[in-house]
From TrEMBL:
Name this polypeptide is given: UDP-N-acetylmuramoylalanine--D-glutamate ligase
Keyword Metal-binding on entry: no
InterPro entries reported in the protein's UniProt record: Mur-like_cat_sf (IPR036565), Mur_ligase_C (IPR004101), Mur_ligase_C_dom_sf (IPR036615), Mur_ligase_cen (IPR013221), MurD (IPR005762)
Gene name for this UniProt entry: murD
Source superkingdom: Bacteria
Lineage: Bacteria, Bacillati, Bacillota, Bacilli, Bacillales
Reactions accelerated catalytically: UDP-N-acetyl-alpha-D-muramoyl-L-alanine + D-glutamate + ATP = UDP-N-acetyl-alpha-D-muramoyl-L-alanyl-D-glutamate + ADP + phosphate + H(+)
GO molecular function: UDP-N-acetylmuramoylalanine-D-glutamate ligase activity
Subcellular location(s) of the protein: Cytoplasm
Pathway connected to this protein: Cell wall biogenesis; peptidoglycan biosynthesis
Family stated for the protein in its record: Belongs to the MurCDEF family.
Domain annotation Mur ligase central: ranges: 117-291
Length: 450
């Protein structure tokens, strides 16, 4: 960890706890800041706040006092989930108090270079692939961000021999000032999180922050399948490395004659790759680019791509039962993600879908349901999805109470060679605390079948 004095004797407010808030508060305290933590959860129900108080950090719990900023704070470190419409954040901005996220702290203290990954879909898979490739290539990677450990905790332990591979959300990227990854990746850009950002334009602007501080000696890996990402290449100072599944790129990463190429060099025969789906090929190409830029050999890349079956809950292969293949894609919490999952298979599909009703319909899925032989729905949206299935001409339509009920029914409707796919197209919060719990219930139900 770098020894820095930037925060010594500065009054800093950490707004919102959870893992990132706790880590930020402890780090700032260690760096000599005068830290106050403010969290909505009452102190008696807040073990994180209790542990911070024991270390001498000031804690205010149960509310966000309206006059809190009158204490003269010089910096606010906010939890990424707290929107900028929060009155304390608006107040801080009006007072010209800098507002950052914990990722910025991690960058300030880190001795290691960062490889930052953002985008609408594919971030976790790409982050994990890069980490595995660098690990296989003996490049001493550490993994951080939305996947793995909180960034500042990782940065404290990192040395100049390490590479920090970090998944970054738009929420986190809005709160950076100096953060500068040596390699940045934008996997793709679609409309998302408009309840937080307000407009698509603001969402994209947040994503652009990943390269705003990059220089010519840094690299920006962009998805050239998308015209919007191509345009970003005109804005950055970094060296652009494009990737595409649709055209061969002499300078970049692409597929030609059944091989993945990097800057004209054959890396691996694509048929050897075990991770399914066109959208996963995009993730693979981005990962190959980052690995090659870091000096990983083709042999190490091939070792990973011939054994990596996916990240848990993200088109995760679960089991083959008498020729029926079960896949857990519980992370598909929106229609776009389910569309991508459906295009990953040519086999007949028994689709399990449903969840939180956000008021939208599902007719966008109809063009992607050609391979769906049966649709099993659950949750608040089960009737809406049945209606979509009727419009798509699916004859086998079933509504059940939950995922656990859906699994044995799906198996009974399947034949050898079919795929049973959990890809809900909805958030989980109507029935499950998060998509991970939903996915784990699916996995457990699959393992109970035989």
């Amino acid at each position: 960890m770098k020894t820095i004095t930037d925060y010594r004797n500065k009054k800093v407010l950490v707004l919102g706890l959870a893992k990132s808030g706790v880590s930020a508060a402890l780090l700032l305290h260690e760096l000599g800041a005068l830290v106050t933590v403010n969290d909505l959860k009452p102190f008696s129900e807040n073990p994180e706040a209790q542990s911070l108080l024991e270390k001498g950090i000031k804690v205010i719990c149960g509310e966000h006092p309206e006059d809190l900023l009158d204490e003269g704070f010089q910096l606010v470190v906010k939890n990424p989930g707290i929107p900028y419409s929060n009155f304390l954040i608006e107040d801080a901005i009006s007072r010209k108090i800098p507002v950052i996220t914990e990722v910025e702290l991690a960058y300030k203290i880190s001795e290691a270079e960062f490889i930052g990954i953002t985008g609408t879909n594919g971030k976790t898979t790409t982050t994990t692939l890069i980490f595995e490739m660098l690990k296989e290539g003996q490049k001493n990677p550490l993994i951080a961000g939305n996947i793995g450990t909180v960034a500042s905790g990782v940065a404290k332990e990192a040395t100049s021999e390490n590479k920090i591979v970090i998944e970054l959300s738009s929420f986190q990227l809005m709160g950076i000032r100096e953060f500068r990854p040596h390699i940045a990746i934008i996997t793709n850009l679609y409309e998302a999180h408009l309840d937080y950002h307000g407009t698509r334009e603001q969402y994209v602007e947040a994503k652009k922050n990943i390269y705003k501080n990059q220089r010519e000696e840094d690299f920006l890996i962009l998805n050239f399948n998308q015209e919007e990402c191509r345009q970003l290449a005109e804005e950055t100072k970094a060296t652009v490395i494009p990737f595409s599944t649709e055209e061969y790129l002499e300078n970049g990463v692409s597929v030609k004659d059944g091989y993945i190429y990097f800057n004209g060099e054959k890396v691996i025969e694509y048929s050897k790759v075990v991770l399914p789906g066109k959208f996963n090929l995009e993730n693979i190409l981005a990962s190959v680019a980052a690995a090659k830029l870091t000096g990983v050999t083709n042999d190490a890349i091939e070792q990973v791509l011939t054994t990596f079956h996916g990240v848990k809950h993200r088109l995760q292969f679960v089991r083959d039962i008498n020729g029926t293949l079960f896949y857990n894609d519980s992370k598909a919490t929106n229609i776009l993600a389910t569309r991508m999952a459906l295009t990953s298979f040519k086999q007949p599909i028994v689709l399990l879908a449903g969840g939180l009703d956000r008021g939208n319909g599902f007719d966008e899925l109809i063009p992607y349901l050609d391979n769906v032989k049966a649709l099993i729905t659950f949750g608040e949206t089960k009737d809406k999805l049945i209606q979509t299935g009727e419009k798509a001409g699916i004859e086998s339509l079933h509504a059940v109470n939950n995922v656990e009920e859906a699994v044995p029914l799906a198996y009974s409707l399947s034949q050898p060679g079919d795929v049973v796919l959990l890809s809900p197209a909805c958030a989980s919060w109507d029935q499950y605390k998060n998509f991970e719990i939903r996915g784990d219930i699916f996995i457990n139900a699959v393992h109970k079948l035989v």
